Amino acid sequence: SDWARGRQQCGTGGQRASTVAAASAEFNDVNTGVPVNFTWEALKKNKFFAPGGTIDVELAEYVMTVVGTVIVMPAEDSSPGKVTPFVGDGGSTLITALLDGTGSQTISVLKCDTTDKCLNPTSETRTISPSAAIRPKVRAMVVAIAGKVVTDQPLSAAEQGLLQMVTIPLYKILTVQAAYSRGGQAGDVDSLVEMASLSLMFAITDQLIGEVGKSKSTFQRGDAESIKLWSDNVENVRSGLRQREQLVNQRGQTLLTWIQSTQFFERQIQANLTPSLSASLDWSRAVSGRGSF
Predict the structure, then answer these.
(1) Closest of 242, 230, 243, 241 to residue 64, by C-alpha
(2) Concatenated DSSP letters for the chain?
(3) Cα(117)–Cα(63) distance, rounded to whole angstroms?
(4) pLDDT tens, 207-217?
(5) Are 122 and 136 spatial neighbours (Cβ–Cβ below 8 Å)?
(6) Which residue among 5, 197, 261, 265 sits deepest, i.e. has the most Cβ atoms within 10 Å of its Cβ?
């Protein structure tokens, strides 16, 4: 039968590589014969890390260093293929460096061989400038979004990506605060930025676990231990983020304060909104589905 002939040709028949090469790139996400770096591919699809489709290589390399990755080289005609886990460093020092930068301190970072596939990353010692870290980027976006709420301007792709990833109702908080202060500066921006940054990191780890989970059925028995090493490290990263989140929550009630004040402000201003702020508040309800009140 055609099925039996195809199985033989792609198995011992020596036509596996030519068959994979002839497949459309449109189906690379589900083609188990295509090499993949799971963390890199997940970050390339993310609007925060790849606004406009161009990945922020430096920031993405830092994230991959923290959470690690799994690189799958599928079997070819003359090789059995392999799965290589890169166990990340989920310690508090590296998480702090990723969020805030390192200043003059150097750290070991995974550096990609190519920005397209990143199938052979190597270790490189470097510093992380504050401008390249996550929290300053989130802060700049929060300030920009707050301004656009007031002026009724469209959000950039990266700003939209941030709103879609974080689990706190960020846009709604900024809309209500702007309306209550009549376009003035929002309240405790530092706490909001800290919570948004941590929420972003949680979302990234969730996304990576999901990406690897979808492909587990294609792994061989020998790959299971490799995948477990990686997944255990991702959970260690999440544990480190939780510890940092607890410290944040102890400083000034953070997210709870924001939610409570937002609920109060929303009730106070509901009947006194300008048309543009009213439209922004309506849209905020639509985009805050995961974290709505």
Answers:
(1) 230
(2) -HHHHHHHHHTTTS-HHHHHHHS-GGGTTT-TTS-EEHHHHHHHT-TTTSGGG---HHHHHHHHHHH-EEEEE--BTTB--EEEEE----SHHHHHHHHH--TT--EEEEE-S-SSS--S-EEEEE---GGGSHHHHHHHHHHHHHHHHHHTPPPPHHHHHHHHH-SS-HHHHHHHHHHHTTT---S-HHHHHHHHHHHHHHHHHHHHHHHHHHHGGGS-GGGHHHHHHHHHHHHHHHHHHHHHHHHHHHTTTHHHHHHHHHHHHHHHHTTS--HHHHHHHHHHHHHTTTT--
(3) 16
(4) 777 776 666 65
(5) no
(6) 197
pTM of the model: 0.66
> Are 109 and 65 a contacting pair, CB within 8 Å?
yes
Query: pLDDT digits over 236-263, tens only?
Result: 888 877 777 776 666 545 555 665 676 6
Q: Is 242 exposed, middle or buried (0-12, 13-18, 19+ CB in 10 A)?
A: exposed
Residue in the structure block whose two tokens are 């199985």: 7
Dihedral over Cα of 79, 80, 81, 82: its sign: negative
